[in-house]
Amino acid sequence: xxxxxxxxxxxAFGKDEVxxxxxxxxxxxxxxxxxxxxxxxxxxxLVASGVLLYLSLGTWWVVxxxxxxxxxxxxIYTPVHDCSHGTVFRTRWLNETVYRFLSLIYIWTPLYYRxxxxxxxxxxxxxxxxxxxxxxxxxxxxxxxxxxxxxxxPYWKRQFTWLGSHALGIKEPADHYFIPDDEWPxxxxxxxxxxxxxxxxxxxxxxxxxxxxVIYWLLPRFIGEPFRRWNNLTEHCGLPEGPDLxxxxxxxxxxxxxxxxxxxxxxxxxxxxxxxxxxxALPALHxxxxxxxxxxxxxxxxxxxxxxxxxxxxxxRESAAPRHA
Length: 325
What we know:
- By secondary structure, the chain is an all-alpha fold.
- The protein has helices at residues 7-10, 21-24, 32-56, 62-74, 77-85, 92-106, 110-122, 143-150, 153-167, 184-207, 212-236, 256-261, 268-273, 282-289, 299-320; strands at residues 250-253, 294-297.
- The protein has one domain.
- It starts with 6 loop residues before the first helix and ends in a 5-residue tail after the last helix.
């Protein structure tokens, strides 16, 4: 399996091609400049929100300050995600260093995620023996499943299950089809290294009687994750299952400031057409091919349409169910 998930882009080529390889090539050029600029702004915002949180402790302002800090922190996901594709920086060692550092903040294991996410791109919205491991809400039981996913309970359950089992050298049954056999030792070492770093932080906090890691990292990390889940629901939910990238992935057009915060990942259909395109080129790619892909405007609008879709799906299923006397 390709670590860069290039196979997913190939689904867009052929009889009904969205964009030719020649046309796509200029959009795939990587730079260090864009990645360093975005990263510097994002980290500066994280420090600034942390300072506001510190200044607000002991006052009612701590609530909005904490929410702001949590919001900035949870959006570290996007550079983590983009680094997994190797597209944030042109310099490979810089991409990998940032990937590993931000993964620690985000409570993530880089190699495992890279393999899992490559499978998501290769088999987007596809079921079967080889399938999309991140397909969500195919059977949501209407609003209950939708809200349960947004609570982040299934997300954290999954995260700590694989972090714990991998650290103990246990292979999760669901992982076998996308993790090569010879990579398991690295997967296990990565999980143990991650826990070792967290244990060192915990030991230092206990030794110095400090709540700093809890207040400025763990608490906002957990508080902010519902936004990431809520945003994640806009990417594929309520769209057809199957390999057609023109229909199974959604671009959500929203405020420019929010696009900047999420590193343009709202251009999700364009990202799936070619994961090799760096984040900074996605708006330009949308200008060229957006009319050939599924796109909608407004995050709230997308959620309302998706909820109506699941509601209607549930009603149709109930009406089709056999009735017993």
